[in-house]
Amino acid sequence: VSLLNKQGIMKCVSLLLLVVAVVVVSASKDNWIVGFSAQNISPSEGESCCLGGYGECLCSRQQTGVHDPIFARAFYLKVGTEEMVFVSIDTVGMSNRFIDDCISNSSAYISDPNRIIMSSTHSHSSPDFAGIWGGVGAEYRKFAISQVVQAIAVAKTSAVEAQLYIAKGEHDQTSNRRGWDSTDYTVLTLWATDINTGDLIGMLVNFGAHPTILGSDNTMVSRDWVNGLIVTLEEKLGADTVMYVNAAQGDVSASRSGLTGDGFDKCFEYGENLAQTVLKSLDNSTSGAVSIVYPEVYLVFSFWTQCVTNNLFIAAANSLGLCSNYIFRDAKDGECPHGKLELPPKLVDTQLAYIRLGQQVQLAVLPGEATTRMAIDGVGATGFNSSTDAIKESMTAPYQGVFGLSTDFLGYFVPEDEWNKPKHDANPDNSDYEESVSLGGDQANVWIRDRVKSLIA
Protein backbone atom coordinates (compact mmCIF):
# COMPACT_ATOMS: atom_id res chain seq x y z
CA VAL A 1 0.00 0.00 0.00
CA SER A 2 1.33 3.44 -0.79
CA LEU A 3 0.07 6.69 0.67
CA LEU A 4 2.60 8.83 -1.11
CA ASN A 5 0.18 10.71 -3.38
CA LYS A 6 -2.62 13.07 -2.41
CA GLN A 7 -4.88 12.09 -5.28
CA GLY A 8 -6.48 8.69 -5.28
CA ILE A 9 -4.90 7.76 -1.97
CA MET A 10 -5.05 4.05 -1.24
CA LYS A 11 -6.36 3.10 -4.70
CA CYS A 12 -3.10 1.32 -5.33
CA VAL A 13 -3.30 -1.68 -2.99
CA SER A 14 -0.92 -4.60 -2.97
CA LEU A 15 -2.29 -8.03 -3.92
CA LEU A 16 -1.82 -9.33 -0.39
CA LEU A 17 -3.83 -6.56 1.22
CA LEU A 18 -6.47 -6.73 -1.50
CA VAL A 19 -7.11 -10.37 -0.59
CA VAL A 20 -7.26 -9.49 3.10
CA ALA A 21 -9.68 -6.65 2.37
CA VAL A 22 -12.10 -9.05 0.68
CA VAL A 23 -11.98 -11.34 3.71
CA VAL A 24 -12.58 -8.45 6.09
CA VAL A 25 -15.55 -7.06 4.23
CA SER A 26 -17.20 -10.43 3.69
CA ALA A 27 -16.60 -11.64 7.25
CA SER A 28 -18.23 -8.64 8.92
CA LYS A 29 -21.68 -7.23 8.41
CA ASP A 30 -20.40 -3.79 9.39
CA ASN A 31 -17.68 -1.58 7.95
CA TRP A 32 -15.75 1.07 9.79
CA ILE A 33 -17.45 4.47 9.93
CA VAL A 34 -14.75 7.12 10.29
CA GLY A 35 -14.61 10.90 10.47
CA PHE A 36 -11.91 13.46 11.21
CA SER A 37 -11.85 17.14 12.09
CA ALA A 38 -9.30 19.80 13.05
CA GLN A 39 -10.40 23.01 14.78
CA ASN A 40 -8.08 25.94 15.50
CA ILE A 41 -7.75 26.78 19.22
CA SER A 42 -5.04 29.45 18.97
CA PRO A 43 -5.43 32.34 21.43
CA SER A 44 -6.07 35.81 20.11
CA GLU A 45 -3.50 38.57 20.40
CA GLY A 46 -3.34 39.79 23.99
CA GLU A 47 -5.58 37.00 25.28
CA SER A 48 -4.73 35.67 28.73
CA CYS A 49 -2.88 32.41 28.12
CA CYS A 50 0.03 31.16 30.18
CA LEU A 51 2.35 28.68 28.52
CA GLY A 52 2.95 25.54 30.55
CA GLY A 53 5.72 23.06 31.16
CA TYR A 54 8.56 25.13 32.57
CA GLY A 55 9.02 26.85 35.90
CA GLU A 56 6.95 27.19 39.05
CA CYS A 57 3.18 27.29 39.53
CA LEU A 58 3.07 30.91 38.40
CA CYS A 59 2.52 32.50 35.02
CA SER A 60 6.14 33.19 34.14
CA ARG A 61 5.40 32.93 30.40
CA GLN A 62 2.35 34.83 29.21
CA GLN A 63 1.90 34.22 25.47
CA THR A 64 3.16 37.02 23.23
CA GLY A 65 1.75 35.72 19.95
CA VAL A 66 1.25 32.60 17.88
CA HIS A 67 4.19 31.21 15.95
CA ASP A 68 2.27 28.25 14.52
CA PRO A 69 -1.46 27.61 15.04
CA ILE A 70 -2.63 25.02 17.55
CA PHE A 71 -5.62 22.72 17.19
CA ALA A 72 -8.10 20.32 18.70
CA ARG A 73 -8.29 17.29 16.42
CA ALA A 74 -10.82 14.46 16.55
CA PHE A 75 -10.65 10.99 14.97
CA TYR A 76 -14.07 9.30 15.15
CA LEU A 77 -14.45 5.51 14.79
CA LYS A 78 -17.62 3.42 14.72
CA VAL A 79 -18.46 -0.23 14.06
CA GLY A 80 -22.12 -1.20 14.34
CA THR A 81 -23.32 0.43 17.57
CA GLU A 82 -19.82 0.74 19.05
CA GLU A 83 -18.26 4.18 18.71
CA MET A 84 -15.33 6.10 20.13
CA VAL A 85 -13.37 9.23 19.37
CA PHE A 86 -9.71 10.10 19.87
CA VAL A 87 -9.20 13.79 20.63
CA SER A 88 -5.73 15.32 20.49
CA ILE A 89 -5.26 18.86 21.81
CA ASP A 90 -2.17 21.01 21.40
CA THR A 91 -1.65 21.75 25.08
CA VAL A 92 0.99 20.90 27.65
CA GLY A 93 -1.75 19.19 29.65
CA MET A 94 -5.39 19.25 30.71
CA SER A 95 -6.80 19.07 34.22
CA ASN A 96 -9.52 16.58 35.03
CA ARG A 97 -12.00 19.45 35.34
CA PHE A 98 -11.11 20.76 31.86
CA ILE A 99 -11.46 17.27 30.39
CA ASP A 100 -14.79 16.74 32.16
CA ASP A 101 -16.09 20.04 30.78
CA CYS A 102 -15.08 19.11 27.22
CA ILE A 103 -16.72 15.70 27.48
CA SER A 104 -19.93 16.87 29.14
CA ASN A 105 -20.37 19.60 26.52
CA SER A 106 -20.03 16.95 23.80
CA SER A 107 -22.85 14.76 25.12
CA ALA A 108 -25.16 15.70 22.24
CA TYR A 109 -22.74 13.91 19.92
CA ILE A 110 -21.15 11.20 22.10
CA SER A 111 -23.56 10.24 24.88
CA ASP A 112 -21.21 7.84 26.69
CA PRO A 113 -18.42 9.91 28.30
CA ASN A 114 -16.15 6.86 28.35
CA ARG A 115 -16.05 6.82 24.56
CA ILE A 116 -14.05 10.04 24.32
CA ILE A 117 -10.27 9.62 24.74
CA MET A 118 -8.67 13.04 25.21
CA SER A 119 -4.90 13.44 24.86
CA SER A 120 -2.38 16.27 25.16
CA THR A 121 0.42 16.74 22.63
CA HIS A 122 2.47 18.21 25.52
CA SER A 123 4.41 21.00 23.82
CA HIS A 124 5.97 23.17 26.52
CA SER A 125 5.15 26.21 24.38
CA SER A 126 1.40 25.61 24.44
CA PRO A 127 -1.50 26.72 26.68
CA ASP A 128 -1.75 25.53 30.26
CA PHE A 129 -5.20 23.95 30.40
CA ALA A 130 -4.10 22.14 33.56
CA GLY A 131 -3.95 25.38 35.53
CA ILE A 132 -0.56 24.49 37.01
CA TRP A 133 1.57 27.22 35.40
CA GLY A 134 -0.93 30.05 35.66
CA GLY A 135 -3.69 28.66 33.48
CA VAL A 136 -5.66 30.58 30.88
CA GLY A 137 -8.33 33.25 30.97
CA ALA A 138 -11.98 32.30 31.37
CA GLU A 139 -12.96 33.45 27.87
CA TYR A 140 -10.12 31.61 26.18
CA ARG A 141 -10.89 28.47 28.18
CA LYS A 142 -14.53 28.68 27.07
CA PHE A 143 -13.46 29.14 23.44
CA ALA A 144 -11.07 26.18 23.55
CA ILE A 145 -13.74 23.89 24.99
CA SER A 146 -16.21 24.98 22.30
CA GLN A 147 -13.65 24.12 19.63
CA VAL A 148 -13.06 20.69 21.14
CA VAL A 149 -16.81 20.08 21.00
CA GLN A 150 -16.88 21.32 17.41
CA ALA A 151 -14.06 18.96 16.45
CA ILE A 152 -15.97 16.00 17.90
CA ALA A 153 -19.22 17.10 16.27
CA VAL A 154 -17.72 17.54 12.80
CA ALA A 155 -15.75 14.29 13.01
CA LYS A 156 -18.90 12.36 13.83
CA THR A 157 -21.33 14.07 11.47
CA SER A 158 -18.91 13.85 8.53
CA ALA A 159 -18.07 10.17 9.10
CA VAL A 160 -18.31 7.79 6.13
CA GLU A 161 -17.72 4.10 5.46
CA ALA A 162 -14.02 3.50 5.58
CA GLN A 163 -11.13 1.09 5.50
CA LEU A 164 -8.77 1.29 8.48
CA TYR A 165 -5.05 0.61 8.28
CA ILE A 166 -2.16 0.39 10.71
CA ALA A 167 1.59 0.73 10.06
CA LYS A 168 4.67 0.80 12.21
CA GLY A 169 8.21 2.03 11.91
CA GLU A 170 11.09 3.01 14.17
CA HIS A 171 12.56 6.43 14.88
CA ASP A 172 15.63 6.50 17.10
CA GLN A 173 16.28 10.24 17.14
CA THR A 174 15.71 10.28 20.90
CA SER A 175 17.66 10.23 24.15
CA ASN A 176 16.76 8.86 27.57
CA ARG A 177 17.22 11.60 30.13
CA ARG A 178 17.41 9.13 33.03
CA GLY A 179 20.46 7.50 31.46
CA TRP A 180 18.93 4.23 30.25
CA ASP A 181 20.32 2.72 27.06
CA SER A 182 17.25 3.25 24.87
CA THR A 183 13.70 4.49 24.52
CA ASP A 184 10.70 2.98 22.77
CA TYR A 185 11.44 3.85 19.14
CA THR A 186 8.10 2.56 17.83
CA VAL A 187 6.09 4.83 15.54
CA LEU A 188 2.51 3.62 15.09
CA THR A 189 0.37 5.17 12.38
CA LEU A 190 -3.38 4.52 12.20
CA TRP A 191 -5.26 5.89 9.21
CA ALA A 192 -8.55 5.57 7.39
CA THR A 193 -9.61 5.99 3.79
CA ASP A 194 -13.03 6.43 2.23
CA ILE A 195 -14.16 2.95 1.16
CA ASN A 196 -15.66 4.35 -2.06
CA THR A 197 -13.10 6.94 -3.19
CA GLY A 198 -9.88 5.84 -1.49
CA ASP A 199 -9.32 9.39 -0.22
CA LEU A 200 -7.64 9.86 3.13
CA ILE A 201 -10.07 10.67 5.96
CA GLY A 202 -7.69 10.98 8.87
CA MET A 203 -4.44 9.77 10.39
CA LEU A 204 -3.13 9.31 13.95
CA VAL A 205 0.62 9.15 14.67
CA ASN A 206 1.76 7.67 18.01
CA PHE A 207 5.36 8.22 19.14
CA GLY A 208 7.19 9.05 22.35
CA ALA A 209 9.43 12.10 22.76
CA HIS A 210 8.95 15.34 24.68
CA PRO A 211 8.10 18.32 22.43
CA THR A 212 10.62 20.48 24.30
CA ILE A 213 13.15 21.61 21.72
CA LEU A 214 12.00 25.16 22.43
CA GLY A 215 13.20 26.31 25.84
CA SER A 216 11.74 28.31 28.69
CA ASP A 217 12.79 31.58 27.04
CA ASN A 218 10.17 31.15 24.31
CA THR A 219 6.85 32.94 24.81
CA MET A 220 5.31 32.29 21.38
CA VAL A 221 2.55 29.69 21.16
CA SER A 222 3.87 26.68 19.25
CA ARG A 223 3.44 22.94 18.82
CA ASP A 224 7.24 22.63 19.05
CA TRP A 225 8.44 19.75 16.82
CA VAL A 226 4.87 18.44 16.46
CA ASN A 227 4.37 21.35 14.06
CA GLY A 228 6.98 19.99 11.64
CA LEU A 229 5.43 16.52 11.84
CA ILE A 230 1.89 17.67 11.09
CA VAL A 231 2.78 20.24 8.43
CA THR A 232 5.05 17.85 6.53
CA LEU A 233 2.50 15.04 6.51
CA GLU A 234 -0.42 17.29 5.60
CA GLU A 235 1.52 18.89 2.75
CA LYS A 236 1.93 15.39 1.34
CA LEU A 237 -1.45 13.89 2.25
CA GLY A 238 -3.93 16.75 2.54
CA ALA A 239 -4.85 19.54 4.95
CA ASP A 240 -6.47 18.88 8.33
CA THR A 241 -5.99 15.12 8.23
CA VAL A 242 -3.28 14.29 10.81
CA MET A 243 -3.12 14.17 14.61
CA TYR A 244 -0.40 13.24 17.10
CA VAL A 245 -0.68 11.27 20.36
CA ASN A 246 2.21 10.74 22.77
CA ALA A 247 3.51 7.28 23.61
CA ALA A 248 5.65 6.43 26.69
CA GLN A 249 7.64 9.67 26.66
CA GLY A 250 8.12 10.32 30.37
CA ASP A 251 11.92 10.09 30.27
CA VAL A 252 12.36 10.70 26.54
CA SER A 253 13.84 13.81 24.94
CA ALA A 254 13.89 14.63 21.26
CA SER A 255 17.55 14.37 20.30
CA ARG A 256 19.00 17.56 18.81
CA SER A 257 21.95 15.66 17.34
CA GLY A 258 22.38 16.43 13.66
CA LEU A 259 19.75 19.17 13.61
CA THR A 260 20.67 22.50 12.04
CA GLY A 261 19.47 26.02 12.68
CA ASP A 262 18.08 27.43 15.88
CA GLY A 263 14.80 27.43 17.75
CA PHE A 264 11.78 27.00 15.52
CA ASP A 265 13.83 25.81 12.54
CA LYS A 266 15.31 23.02 14.65
CA CYS A 267 11.82 22.07 15.85
CA PHE A 268 10.52 21.85 12.32
CA GLU A 269 13.46 19.75 11.14
CA TYR A 270 12.91 17.21 13.92
CA GLY A 271 9.21 16.90 13.10
CA GLU A 272 10.00 16.68 9.40
CA ASN A 273 12.42 13.81 10.05
CA LEU A 274 9.75 11.95 12.03
CA ALA A 275 7.26 12.55 9.22
CA GLN A 276 9.64 10.88 6.78
CA THR A 277 9.74 7.82 9.07
CA VAL A 278 5.94 7.77 9.00
CA LEU A 279 5.76 8.10 5.22
CA LYS A 280 8.28 5.32 4.74
CA SER A 281 6.24 3.01 6.98
CA LEU A 282 3.10 3.70 4.93
CA ASP A 283 4.72 2.43 1.76
CA ASN A 284 4.12 -1.30 2.11
CA SER A 285 6.18 -2.05 -0.99
CA THR A 286 9.31 -1.13 0.97
CA SER A 287 8.36 -1.44 4.65
CA GLY A 288 6.17 -4.54 4.67
CA ALA A 289 4.71 -3.09 7.85
CA VAL A 290 1.13 -2.25 6.84
CA SER A 291 -2.00 -4.15 7.83
CA ILE A 292 -5.72 -3.72 7.37
CA VAL A 293 -7.56 -3.43 10.69
CA TYR A 294 -10.61 -5.67 11.05
CA PRO A 295 -13.80 -3.68 11.91
CA GLU A 296 -14.08 -4.34 15.63
CA VAL A 297 -13.72 -2.07 18.69
CA TYR A 298 -13.05 -3.31 22.21
CA LEU A 299 -12.69 -0.59 24.87
CA VAL A 300 -12.60 -1.11 28.63
CA PHE A 301 -11.77 1.28 31.47
CA SER A 302 -10.45 0.85 34.98
CA PHE A 303 -11.52 3.52 37.46
CA TRP A 304 -9.96 4.07 40.87
CA THR A 305 -9.26 6.64 43.57
CA GLN A 306 -5.58 7.54 43.83
CA CYS A 307 -3.73 8.93 46.85
CA VAL A 308 -1.73 12.10 46.24
CA THR A 309 1.21 12.11 48.65
CA ASN A 310 3.64 14.44 46.86
CA ASN A 311 3.93 17.42 49.20
CA LEU A 312 4.45 19.81 46.28
CA PHE A 313 1.25 18.66 44.59
CA ILE A 314 -0.68 18.88 47.87
CA ALA A 315 0.61 22.38 48.56
CA ALA A 316 -0.39 23.47 45.06
CA ALA A 317 -3.84 21.93 45.46
CA ASN A 318 -4.29 23.81 48.74
CA SER A 319 -3.30 27.17 47.27
CA LEU A 320 -5.90 29.37 45.62
CA GLY A 321 -5.17 29.81 41.94
CA LEU A 322 -2.65 26.96 41.80
CA CYS A 323 -3.90 23.67 40.36
CA SER A 324 -7.43 24.96 41.00
CA ASN A 325 -8.66 23.26 37.86
CA TYR A 326 -8.18 19.83 39.41
CA ILE A 327 -10.86 18.02 41.37
CA PHE A 328 -9.13 16.80 44.54
CA ARG A 329 -10.61 15.52 47.79
CA ASP A 330 -9.20 15.35 51.30
CA ALA A 331 -8.16 11.88 52.44
CA LYS A 332 -9.38 10.43 55.72
CA ASP A 333 -6.96 9.60 58.53
CA GLY A 334 -4.88 6.57 57.62
CA GLU A 335 -6.28 6.37 54.08
CA CYS A 336 -2.99 7.29 52.42
CA PRO A 337 -0.12 6.24 54.73
CA HIS A 338 3.24 7.58 53.59
CA GLY A 339 6.45 8.12 55.49
CA LYS A 340 7.36 11.35 53.70
CA LEU A 341 4.11 13.22 54.27
CA GLU A 342 4.37 16.75 55.61
CA LEU A 343 0.87 17.82 54.58
CA PRO A 344 -2.50 16.01 54.79
CA PRO A 345 -2.83 13.83 51.66
CA LYS A 346 -5.32 14.34 48.86
CA LEU A 347 -7.37 11.96 46.74
CA VAL A 348 -8.07 12.14 43.02
CA ASP A 349 -10.42 9.98 40.96
CA THR A 350 -8.82 8.84 37.74
CA GLN A 351 -8.85 6.12 35.11
CA LEU A 352 -6.94 4.29 32.43
CA ALA A 353 -8.13 2.22 29.49
CA TYR A 354 -7.29 -0.63 27.16
CA ILE A 355 -8.33 -0.58 23.50
CA ARG A 356 -8.22 -3.31 20.89
CA LEU A 357 -8.97 -2.50 17.25
CA GLY A 358 -9.69 -5.68 15.33
CA GLN A 359 -7.11 -8.32 16.14
CA GLN A 360 -4.24 -6.19 14.89
CA VAL A 361 -3.94 -3.28 17.33
CA GLN A 362 -3.63 -3.14 21.13
CA LEU A 363 -3.39 0.18 22.97
CA ALA A 364 -2.83 1.05 26.63
CA VAL A 365 -4.29 4.46 27.49
CA LEU A 366 -2.53 6.05 30.48
CA PRO A 367 -3.40 9.19 32.51
CA GLY A 368 0.08 10.68 32.59
CA GLU A 369 3.68 10.27 31.49
CA ALA A 370 4.93 6.69 31.63
CA THR A 371 8.69 6.21 31.54
CA THR A 372 10.29 3.87 29.02
CA ARG A 373 10.85 0.86 31.28
CA MET A 374 7.18 0.80 32.21
CA ALA A 375 6.30 0.29 28.53
CA ILE A 376 8.90 -2.11 27.13
CA ASP A 377 11.23 -4.85 28.32
CA GLY A 378 14.98 -4.99 27.81
CA VAL A 379 15.84 -1.39 28.70
CA GLY A 380 18.83 -1.20 31.03
CA ALA A 381 22.35 0.14 31.45
CA THR A 382 25.74 -1.09 32.61
CA GLY A 383 25.43 -2.10 36.24
CA PHE A 384 21.63 -2.05 36.21
CA ASN A 385 19.00 -4.67 35.54
CA SER A 386 17.02 -4.46 32.31
CA SER A 387 13.28 -3.86 32.50
CA THR A 388 10.97 -6.87 32.63
CA ASP A 389 7.22 -7.48 32.80
CA ALA A 390 6.45 -4.18 31.04
CA ILE A 391 3.03 -3.26 29.65
CA LYS A 392 3.67 -4.22 26.03
CA GLU A 393 4.94 -7.65 27.06
CA SER A 394 1.35 -8.63 27.86
CA MET A 395 0.20 -7.68 24.37
CA THR A 396 0.12 -10.22 21.56
CA ALA A 397 -1.11 -8.17 18.58
CA PRO A 398 1.45 -7.23 15.92
CA TYR A 399 0.83 -3.52 16.52
CA GLN A 400 1.16 -2.36 20.13
CA GLY A 401 0.97 1.17 21.47
CA VAL A 402 0.85 3.30 24.58
CA PHE A 403 -1.26 6.46 24.56
CA GLY A 404 0.22 8.66 27.26
CA LEU A 405 -1.08 11.92 28.69
CA SER A 406 -4.57 10.64 27.93
CA THR A 407 -7.79 10.90 30.00
CA ASP A 408 -5.85 12.82 32.71
CA PHE A 409 -2.63 14.70 33.49
CA LEU A 410 -1.18 13.20 36.68
CA GLY A 411 2.56 13.58 36.27
CA TYR A 412 5.16 10.87 35.79
CA PHE A 413 4.84 7.12 36.30
CA VAL A 414 8.17 5.58 37.36
CA PRO A 415 8.62 1.82 37.97
CA GLU A 416 9.49 0.84 41.54
CA ASP A 417 12.90 -0.56 40.71
CA GLU A 418 14.11 2.82 39.47
CA TRP A 419 12.25 5.02 41.92
CA ASN A 420 14.93 7.35 43.19
CA LYS A 421 13.67 9.61 45.96
CA PRO A 422 15.66 9.97 48.11
CA LYS A 423 18.53 9.25 45.77
CA HIS A 424 19.98 5.75 46.03
CA ASP A 425 21.51 5.03 42.62
CA ALA A 426 18.32 3.51 41.20
CA ASN A 427 18.86 4.89 37.69
CA PRO A 428 22.04 5.61 35.71
CA ASP A 429 21.73 9.40 35.95
CA ASN A 430 20.93 9.24 39.68
CA SER A 431 18.17 11.76 38.95
CA ASP A 432 14.86 12.32 40.67
CA TYR A 433 13.14 14.96 38.54
CA GLU A 434 10.37 12.62 37.39
CA GLU A 435 9.75 11.51 40.98
CA SER A 436 9.36 15.13 42.07
CA VAL A 437 6.60 15.63 39.48
CA SER A 438 4.61 12.51 40.32
CA LEU A 439 1.64 11.83 42.57
CA GLY A 440 4.10 10.51 45.15
CA GLY A 441 5.12 7.03 46.21
CA ASP A 442 7.01 4.30 44.41
CA GLN A 443 4.06 2.17 43.36
CA ALA A 444 3.46 3.08 39.73
CA ASN A 445 3.67 -0.59 38.77
CA VAL A 446 0.65 -1.27 40.98
CA TRP A 447 -1.21 1.92 40.05
CA ILE A 448 -0.64 1.74 36.31
CA ARG A 449 1.22 -1.26 34.90
CA ASP A 450 -0.58 -4.06 36.72
CA ARG A 451 -3.96 -2.38 36.36
CA VAL A 452 -3.75 -1.95 32.60
CA LYS A 453 -2.28 -5.43 32.14
CA SER A 454 -5.32 -6.88 33.92
CA LEU A 455 -7.53 -5.37 31.19
CA ILE A 456 -5.62 -6.71 28.21
CA ALA A 457 -7.63 -9.19 26.17
Shape: globular
Determine the structural class based on helices, strands and strand pairing: alpha/beta
| Beta strands, count | 20
- Our estimate of the beta-strand percent is 25-35%
Biggest sheet details: 9 strands, mixed
Number of helices, counting only DSSP H or I runs of 4 residues or more: 10
Protein name: Neutral/alkaline non-lysosomal ceramidase N-terminal domain-containing protein
Domain Neutral/alkaline non-lysosomal ceramidase N-terminal: 49-240
Pfam family, one: Ceramidase_alk
Keywords: Signal
Walk me through the structure.
The chain is α/β, with parallel strands linked by helices. The protein has two domains: 15-292, no CATH class; 297-455, no CATH class. Helix content is 23%, strand content 26%. It has ten helices and 20 strands. A hairpin with a 3-residue loop joins strand 16 (346-357) and strand 17 (361-365). Helix 2 (96-104) crosses helix 3 and helix 4 crosses helix 5. 54% of the residues are buried.
